[in-house]
Amino acid sequence: MKVLEEKTACPNCGFQPLNSSFCPKCGQRKLSDKDFYITSLFQDFFNDIFQFDNAFFKTVKNFLISPGKYAREYNSGSRKKYLSPIKLFLIANAFYFLFPIINTFTTSLSIQEYGIIYNNLTPGLIESTISASGLSNTEFVNVYDKLTTTLSKALLIFIPFSFGIITWLLSISTRITTPILTHLNYSLILNAFMVLIITSVLPGVYVIFLNLFGYTNVAINDTQITSAAFILLNTFGYFLYRNFFGSKLWINIIRTLLLNISFVLILFVYRFLLLLVTLGWLFLSL
Asked: CA-CA distance, 190 to 160, in Å (whole number)?
């Protein structure tokens, strides 16, 4: 084909002369006559789907069944067959924000004021901001809940990064040999489980189950969420971290409990930070 004969340079990076099937500089495949057939459209489409499926389903499988294996293999260099932990975390967040069953991370104003352990600190702060805004309580609640949902999408990254730094600081014996990025990848996997399974999938299944049997008035409260999160995070965290620190069984169990207690505390810090940021934003803009 004349168009192909005239191509002496790589169309992707400009390397020339391009004498092989793949560019030696960037790896771009050289086009052939078959790439100009209509069937190539369908071939590319299905290739992209199955390539995505292979990485996606392998990641999900090990994420749920063997999270420690997924984390170890990814950190050791097996990047081609897995989605990265940051991509998994972003997918989990996208799912959570598209199908919000409970507002653990968005945290409405009513929960911030009355439904969290630090609620003795919040009423005065919230009421003073409402007074300064000039809005009625109903108007302020509507504005706040809409804004905090938007801000939470940006602030949610605070949790895995904070937890990753804490695990790195606590790993005194392996801190020199284990880069902080390794800890962050483990933290992103743990947070993906928190966001996807604990706050989306399981509550969704629970709500569907209640509706099927007519229990439409039963609500999920913050105490139930916190209790379930603590139990599930300790279980998942144990299998995720059990071979990471290279310690004895009882030390790993204690370390997992301490790490997950830290995780719950970070969650409360995040929610309080979200409250302060949202109120500050409203105070400056209204």
From this structure: 8
Q: Which two tokens stand for residue 24?
A: 């030696």
- Say whether 159 sits in a helix, a strand or coil: helix
Handedness of CA 85, 90, 96, 99 (dihedral sign): negative
Token pair for residue 139?
């108007």
As given in the structure block, the two tokens for residue 282 are: 């409203």
Confidence (pTM): 0.74
Q: Are the C-beta atoms of 204 and 101 separated by less than 8 Å?
A: yes
Looking at 56-207, which runs of residues are DSSP E strands?
none
In the block, residue with structure tokens 């505390």: 265
Measured distance CA(260)–CA(193) in Å, rounded: 13
CA 204 – CA 200 distance, rounded (Å): 6
Structure tokens belonging to residue 136: 């009625």
For residues 137 and 127, give the distance between their C-alpha atoms in angstroms, rounded to a whole number.
Answer: 9
Say how far apart CA 143 and CA 134 lie, in whole Å. Answer: 12
Q: What is the pLDDT of residues 264-285, one digit of tens each?
A: 788 889 989 999 999 999 988 8
CA 167, 172, 173, 178 torsion-angle sign? positive
**Percent composition of the chain: helix, strand, coil (DSSP 3-state, to 5):** 70, 0, 30
For 132-155, the pLDDT digits (tens) are 888 998 999 999 999 998 898 888
Residues contacting residue 271 through CB under 8 Å, at least 6 positions apart: 105, 107, 112, 116
pLDDT in tens, 168-214: 887 766 666 678 888 899 999 999 998 888 888 887 777 777 778 77
What is the Cα–Cα distance from 81 to 65, expressed in whole angstroms? 16
